[in-house]
Recover the amino acids of this structure.
């Protein structure tokens, strides 16, 4: 490799090849961002669903007693 110019950075020589290979594509970055944005919402929904099931079970047990 002789050189590359990416995002205002200059990479010259074979020793910079690993740095260029590790750069993620635009699609990969968008996918990661979407995943990070969805994660908190999924955790809240999951917690609400599991908490609701536990509460219903407790109420059922109390009503049976």
């Amino acid at each position: 490799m002789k050189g590359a110019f990416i995002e205002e950075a200059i990479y010259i020589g074979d020793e910079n090849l690993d740095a260029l290979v590790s750069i993620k594509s635009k699609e990969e970055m968008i996918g990661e961002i979407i995943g990070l944005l969805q994660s908190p919402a999924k955790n809240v929904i999951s917690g609400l669903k599991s908490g609701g099931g536990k509460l219903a079970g407790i109420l059922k047990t109390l009503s049976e007693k």
